[in-house]
Amino acid sequence: MLDIQDVEVYYGAIQALYAINVSVQEGEIVTLIGANGAGKSTTLRTISGLVRPRRGRVRFMDKDISGLPPHEVVRLGISQSPEGRRVFSNLSVFENLEMGAYVRSDPEGMASDLEQVFGLFPRLRERAKQGAGTLSGGEQQMLAIGRALMSRPKLLLLDEPSLGLAPFLVREIFGIITDIRSKGTTVLLVEQNARQALSIADRGYVLETGQVLISDTAEELLASEMIQKAYLGE
Amino acid sequence: MLGSIYALIALGYTMVYGVLRLINFAHGDVYMVGAFIGLYAWRYLGLPSEEGQAQVVSTAGLLLMMLIAMVGAAALGVLIERVAYRPLRRAPRLTALITAIGVSMLLEYGGQLVFGTTKQDYPWLAGTVPSSIGSAAGGSSGISIDRVDVIILVIAVLLVVVLQIIVHGTRPGKAMRAVAFDREAASLMGINTDTIIALTFIVGSAFAGAAGVLVGVRNHYVEPLMGLTAGIKAFVAAVVGGIGSIPGAALGGLIMGLSEEAVRAFYPELADAVVFGVLILILVLRPCGLIGSQTAEKV
């Protein structure tokens, strides 16, 4: 479904990604783990078109999407819930969800997806008319994910959904990610919380200083002694 | 009322600042060009005039002049955005600011080349012509409320209401607010941010064009440098109200206009000094403006 081939990305003179290869098959949850600055977010930003690769290609559903502007990438079926949530605080919760569905023009489909999102996150329904800026951090994370789902993406990119959340909320969010996949959306998940991410993922990539260190099934990675030492804190 | 004219111009400053964080110094000159477009439309298109009075335009004629000026100013605004600002989207903010000053000068002095350097007569609005023009023209003092002011106020209020409806009730309007808050996140929603920014210039410039025509029928003359002072005062109005805030710009414009007219009635030479004094006072007390937004990050 998604194929990142030998992608190299620079921020000015600084190279952020070195010939990265990542692939995601339809129906999978794939996770990118690694330390701060390893290039996880940059990989997602490249897929969404927020940064352009200097070399290499991003292919989605057999189409080269490298270099497409972000709004066209969304139209193809990739949506992202960015790092730090980035909800529109000046808009209401409901308007944020409307913006998530910006590319769509099927009112019935949008209404049923809105119901789905409210089903996943009942708190958002209660607060639909509130300003998004008044939500707690956890609620904002739910809104960011719900908003990304409103475009009915084929591939959902989640950047650090557990960042700054209390442990019980982290468990809730990861449970919901599993739900989202079971409803047919493929997920590419970036996480620092490696253990939790691997526990729900099918496969994982370990990134270090802009390169893929290892890629394997989530089970193998969880079992690997080296990964346990370096990333799982054992 | 002067205040409603400042308010109309201030809206454009505040909207463009909202989406681009750019003070579009050329905005006052778009207002000037709008006034001239209205004038030429009236002169050459034979817009409805009062019978037998060549220098008087009927209310319907005024609305048509405004409409044409709004379309023309919108086209100019979007052209400026496309040619001067869009190529600088990723450049440092200062670069765009200096470019804005350059565009402003281009319009002011280009305007003198095209329109001539002298003041040109603007038609009177039907029903506002004093019985003997010679005695009353230019002699307004105090907070004068006459028919033309009432009409200007009504039109300005209508336009502001329309703008509020656009921004809060329509999809492109909501997208505008989303882009203003976080352009990158908006692009991740599938919003074409360039289109929304162009739309912002269209709406803001159209309002300036309307203000240009209204000020023309109020003052009975226009000239290519009229955008300079009006632009600065409208900009100040936007800052007083809280730049980026639409109701703020409307409120700031009214305060600026009313205080200017009130002071002018008694101490004409002090009008501008007091107006800018008010600005300083308000900004000392409320640095974000009257309706300025302070956004707090939630963690």
Describe the structure in your own words.
Chain A is of the alpha/beta class and 234 residues long. Helices cover 39% and strands 27% of the residues of chain A. A six-stranded mixed β-sheet of chain A has the order 6-7-8-3-9-10, sandwiched between helices. Chain A has a four-stranded antiparallel β-sheet with strand order 2-1-4-5, covered by helices on one side. In chain A, α7 (167-182) links the parallel β7 and β8 (186-191). The model of chain A has no long low-confidence stretch (mean pLDDT 93). Helices cover 71% and strands 3% of the residues of chain B. Chain B has a two-stranded parallel ribbon with strand order 1-3. In chain B, strands 2-4 form a two-stranded antiparallel ribbon. Classes of the chains: A alpha/beta (234), B mainly alpha (299).
Any key phrases for this structure?
A: 234 residues, 6-stranded mixed sheet, 4-stranded antiparallel sheet, 39% helix, B: two-stranded antiparallel ribbon, 71% helix, globular, disordered C terminus
Structural class computed from helices and strand pairing of chain B: mainly alpha
Please provide the count of β strands of chain B.
4
Major β-sheet annotation of chain A = 6 strands, mixed
* Largest sheet, spatial ordering of strands of chain B: 1-3
Oligomer: heterodimer
Shape of chain B: globular
Question: Which range best describes the helical content of chain A: under 10%, 10-25%, 25-40%, 40-55%, 55-70% or over 70%?
Answer: 25-40%
Taken from the alpha-carbon principal axes, the silhouette of chain A is globular
Helix count of chain B equals: 12
What percentage of the residues of chain B does DSSP assign to strands (E)? under 5%
Strand content of chain A: 25-35%
Please give the share of residues in helix of chain B: over 70%
Structural class of chain A: alpha/beta
**Span from first to last CA of chain B?**
46 Å
Secondary structure blueprint with pairings:
The complex is a heterodimer of chains A (234) and B (299).
Chain A: E1 2-11, E2 14-24, E3 29-34, H1 40-48, E4 55-60, E5 63-64, H2 70-76, E6 78-81, H3 93-100, H4 107-120, H5 122-126, H6 137-149, E7 155-159, H7 167-182, E8 186-191, H8 194-200, E9 203-208, E10 211-217, H9 218-223, H10 225-231
Parallel strand pairs in A: 3-8, 3-9, 6-7, 7-8
Antiparallel strand pairs in A: 1-2, 1-4, 4-5, 9-10
Helix pairs in contact in A: 3-6
Chain B: H1 2-20, H2 27-45, E1 56-57, H3 59-85, H4 93-115, E2 120-121, E3 124-125, H5 133-136, H6 147-169, H7 171-181, H8 183-188, H9 193-219, E4 221-222, H10 226-241, H11 246-266, H12 271-285
Parallel strand pairs in B: 1-3
Antiparallel strand pairs in B: 2-4
Helix pairs in contact in B: 1-6, 1-7, 1-9, 1-10, 1-11, 2-3, 2-4, 2-9, 2-10, 3-9, 6-7, 6-9, 7-9, 10-11, 10-12, 11-12
